[in-house]
Amino acid sequence: MYRLKRMISLVFLFVVILPVFGTVSYAEEFELTAKAAILVEMETGQVLYEKNPDLRWAPASTTKIMTALVALENADIDTKMKASANAINTIPLDYGIAGIRAGEELTLNDLLNFVLIISANEAANVIAENISPSGRIEEFIDLMNNEAARLGLKNTHFTNSYGLDEDNHYSSARDLAIMAREAMKYPVFREIVARKVVPLPDTNLRTSNQWENWHIESTNKLLHSTSQYYDRVTGIKTGYTGKAGRCLVFSAVNKEGLELVGVILGTENYDILFRESQELLEYGYKNYKIQTLVSSGEYYGRYEVVDSVDNIPVDLQTLGEVTHLLPTSAEKLQTAVTVKETLNTPFIAPIEKGQVLGTKTWYYNGEEIGSVQLIAMNDIEKTMAAKIRDKTIELVNNKKLRLITITVVIIIVAFIILRLILRSISRRRNYNRRHYRF
Q: HSE on the CB side for 20, CA within 13 Å?
């Protein structure tokens, strides 16, 4: 009985302690409740997870990523912008605002802080009016759609600057990830979306301490998350409407510098949104890492060389490096990564050290991810017999030399024939002189 109780206690202790020291592997069974999602690598856009990535969805305030991107492409960050009554009053009453007043002047930097940190809708309209050449928000929307076309977004179209639900206003998880990666190329965008609190500015109408500060914290609560798999969350933007549900475009970086970008669209509440966003990030960091498949200087092999002095073989080594974001699972790695080798055989002397004698190329899921050259590690000399043979063959095959030789031979033969003819004539004359004297 004592043994049974002790065994039960040990099992219970194991179950309690296990979550502390490790997490369940997500592997292939990992699934989200969100309507659409994607996880990609920041620099290359390599997809690590996707669920309905091209489903057209109401983007809500994740729209503001494109608003900020177009703004940064068309105006300096310190540009002064003036708020109009139209920009403020056209925002529906139940949509979040910063409380900007008509006639108030703010910099683009101030407005982007409001737009991206606390999702202030009127701030997006102020940006749109001031950047639009005509001062009309509709013209700024055209710039947004032009940028979407430039980025190759196939499932995105905008009809407003801040994310109002409208029939022809939509995007997708994949397109939002592309937008986010493009916007994160701007250091000021990166700096803003990583902030947890909005900095309140001085304006022509008030000082910073005169703003209503009931709404100053970032809507992106994922910024407060911690994990053993990533170092910190680096952004980016929340979104919510009744039609869109809870949405989030997010990013994080680990200690190795690997940055991932994720999108989750259409969860039921914010608890699910931020939980699944963190789970998706952890899935990526746990199941993928940057791996070096080959480094420069690795020994490749030894091969026989035709016409080599003393039959000395050539040794090959790699020149170049191939690194790529790959699955941590050895089984997945074995099935997903393939290699193609090309050698310029047969190897024939002479060979110089460093001479390229082949290539080795790696493929991940059928797409090329890198290649290295295979170079000689040692010099190989050609035998004297082979040199004489090759020189003879070269002379024989030299058309110009062959033509000259034939010409010389013809001249020599002609000269010999001429000599013979002349000698024959000379003998005949001498004969006639001896036998026909008067």
A: 5
The residue segments making up the domain with residue 120 are: 23-286
User: What pLDDT is recorded for position 348?
Assistant: 97
Residues 105, 36: one domain? yes
**CB under 8 Å to 123, separation ≥6 — which residues?**
97, 98, 100, 106, 111, 112, 114, 115
With residue 318 as reference, give the H or E element that holds it.
strand 314-319
Query: According to the model, what pLDDT value does residue 278 have?
Result: 98
pLDDT value of position 406? 77
Read off the pTM: 0.83
Give the DSSP letter of residue 197.
B
Do 254 and 303 share a domain, yes or no?
no
| Paired tokens of 217 | 């914290």
pLDDT given at position 427:
77
Same domain, 341 and 321: yes
Q: What is the pLDDT of residues 127-181, one digit of tens each?
A: 999 999 999 999 999 999 999 999 999 999 999 999 999 999 999 999 999 999 9
36-41 vs 47-51, strand pairing mode: antiparallel
Amino acid at 271: D
d(CA 221, CA 60): 17
Tokens standing for residue 426: 């000379």
**Are 310 and 223 in a shared domain?**
no
Q: What are phi and psi of 169, to 5 degrees?
A: -115, 105
Domain boundary among 320, 353, 376: 376
Residue 389 to residue 87: CA distance in whole angstroms: 88
Give the residue among 293, 332, 245 at the shortest CA–CA distance from 25: 332
How many structural domains are present in the chain? Answer: 2
Phi, psi of 164 (to 5 degrees): -60, 135
Q: Which pLDDT belongs to residue 396?
A: 80
Could you report the per-residue pLDDT of 113-135, keeping only the tens digit for each?
Answer: 999 999 999 999 999 999 999 99
Helix (H) or strand (E) holding 322: strand 322-327
Which residue ranges of the chain lie beneath pLDDT 50? Answer: 1-27, 438
Query: In the numeric block, which tokens belong to residue 436?
Result: 């026909």
CATH number at residue 109: 3.40.710.10
Q: Distance from CA of residue 87 to its chain's centroid?
A: 38
Task: Identify the DSSP state of 292.
Answer: E
Least Cα distance to 190 among 267, 77, 340 occurs for 77
> Looking at the structure, do residues 310 and 352 belong to the same domain, yes or no?
yes
